[in-house]
Specification:
single chain; about 500 residues; mainly alpha
Length: about 500
């Protein structure tokens, strides 16, 4: 005998049948059935385009802001990260109504819109990079797309493929962009990057099919969006309701704050302070990317051997060591050693996600993952700004000399702006103050992680809510026949943050 809930769902489907048929053409447009591979192509093309600009952006940034390079880099990426954090829930909620394809299109388009401005007006170029943070949530929409087309037990592997694809795009593109800039000109690199970005937009329009199941889409595009769905702090407000979740989120905050700051400036730092050549920076990016992929291959073995908690602590230990090397290192080989440690530390967040998966009930995983992901989103805005301000406070900037800048191949760092003797002594002892400060934050994260309970009897006890959490509204469960409402499912974040591009 049909239950009251099943009758309600059936009635909804019958009432909405006509609008759904009306949207069939848009939903079914594309090549083939929606799959993970569509999402992989979108991610690869977008970040390949930006990867080509890695070297030109570093030079342009220093030419545009020669006196406050690191401060402006931090502010630009900080504003971009904060805007992304604030807009992600709203875009996620709207994608539940309007579909994934539409928002893949606008996020890729507006994220890549600043690229042509690089050769037109550099001030507008960097201003548009900051403003584009409103739409710089392609990864979130892609993860939602992947969740639409995979079963729950397949998602961890699928998310790993997305992260690996991002890493792969960064292995080749910076070196290629540097080579084209050296042989031809910066304008040619910008033109090629623009063409690849347009190709990505065209691919979404023509080849990407809609992944959101028709049966769960509202009857019209005018469906209301509640404030809770658009509130970026909705999930974070629930952090203190469970002791284990609180410690996990504190660990994520303390460890990812310096990581986000590092990703925003490390390539700029290597070239402008440590004296890396264009080729060296490109090879450095490729090497770290390859090693990061390799680290993920042994993650499963570590999880089985050490357990999720101790794997988290191992990743934090490597992160602390690499930040220390970046901060105190003054030689080229030290930077390479730090990069190797950084690639190994990329296992931290997947291990945290695995811990949540193993210690949360099925109906609470989305809620807890949402809190953890929300904390990372907040760090994406605060981390770059923190690093930029610390660089500024410690007077780490350059006297820009194009001849020395272009011909420096010795691997020795370049002279900083002359300061008082005390500042000169500090800069000699600690070339990278923000990295050292970040290492101390990671030490605090290690101490917190040491007290995270691990065991079958330590389940996360958050009370399920009656409404889906806004922070991760893009990844809802679509099994309407079961008539269950979930809090949403958060994806694993990319192993290499997109803010590393600048």
């Amino acid at each position: 005998m049909p239950t009251k809930a099943s009758k309600k769902v059936t009635g909804m489907i019958i009432r909405n049948r006509k609008p759904i048929l009306k949207d069939t053409v848009m939903t079914n447009s594309g090549v083939g059935e929606p799959s993970v591979y569509h999402a992989l192509v979108v991610i690869f093309l977008e970040f390949f385009a930006w990867g080509l600009l890695t070297m030109p952006v570093i030079a342009t940034l220093n030419e545009t802001f020669p006196d406050h390079t690191f401060l402006m880099n931090g502010l630009i990426m900080g504003i971009k990260g904060i805007l992304s954090f604030l807009s992600a829930p709203l875009i996620g909620a709207l994608s539940d109504v309007w579909g994934r394809k539409f928002f893949l299109l606008i996020t890729v388009f507006f994220t890549c819109a600043p690229i042509p401005l690089m050769t037109i007006n550099t001030w507008w170029f960097f201003a548009m990079i900051s403003i584009s943070g409103v739409f710089a949530v392609t990864f979130s929409v892609v993860f939602a797309y992947v969740a639409d087309v995979t079963e729950e037990h397949e998602r961890s592997l699928a998310y790993g493929l997305v992260s690996a694809t991002f890493a792969a795009s960064m292995v080749i593109s910076p070196a290629l962009g540097a080579y084209i800039m050296d042989v031809y000109s910066e304008s040619v690199v910008v033109a090629l990057a623009t063409a690849i970005a347009l190709l990505d937009v065209f691919f979404i329009l023509v080849a990407v099919p809609e992944s959101l199941p028709e049966k769960v889409r509202p009857s019209s595009w005018g469906a209301p969006i509640s404030w809770e769905q658009a509130d970026p702090f909705a999930a974070l407000r629930k952090v203190g309701k469970d002791h284990t979740v609180l410690m996990l989120c504190v660990t994520v905050f303390l460890s990812y704050l310096p990581e986000a700051g590092q990703y925003s400036c490390i390539f700029v730092y290597l070239k402008l302070v440590m004296g890396f050549s264009v080729l060296m920076v490109a090879v450095f990016i490729a090497t770290v990317g390859i090693l990061s992929v390799g680290a993920q291959l042994v993650l499963g073995f570590l999880m089985k051997s050490l357990g999720s908690k101790h794997t988290i602590m191992l990743g934090l230990l490597f992160e602390m060591l690499q930040l220390m090397w970046y901060g105190f290192g003054s030689q080229t080989w030290m930077m390479w050693a730090a990069g190797t440690l950084a690639s190994i530390s990329s296992i931290t967040y997947p291990a945290i996600s695995a811990f949540v998966s193993m210690h949360s009930d099925a109906d609470k995983q989305g809620l807890v993952q949402g809190m953890v992901t929300g904390m990372r989103g907040l760090c994406n805005g605060l981390g770059p700004a923190m690093f930029g301000i610390i660089f500024y406070l410690f007077h780490v900037d350059l006297n820009y000399d194009p001849a020395r800048y272009d011909n420096n191949t010795s691997g020795q760092h370049m002279d900083v702006i002359p300061q008082e003797p005390v500042w000169n002594m500090i800069q000699q002892l600690v070339p990278g103050p923000p990295f050292v400060f970040g290492a101390f934050l990671v030490i605090c994260a290690l101490l917190v992680a040491a007290f995270i309970p691990e065991g079958s009897n330590q389940a996360i006890t958050l009370k399920p809510t009656t409404r889906r959490q806004s922070g991760l509204s893009m990844e809802v469960h679509y099994e309407m026949e079961r008539c269950k409402k979930h809090d949403g499912l958060s994806p694993l974040s990319p192993l290499v943050d997109s803010s590393a591009l600048l």
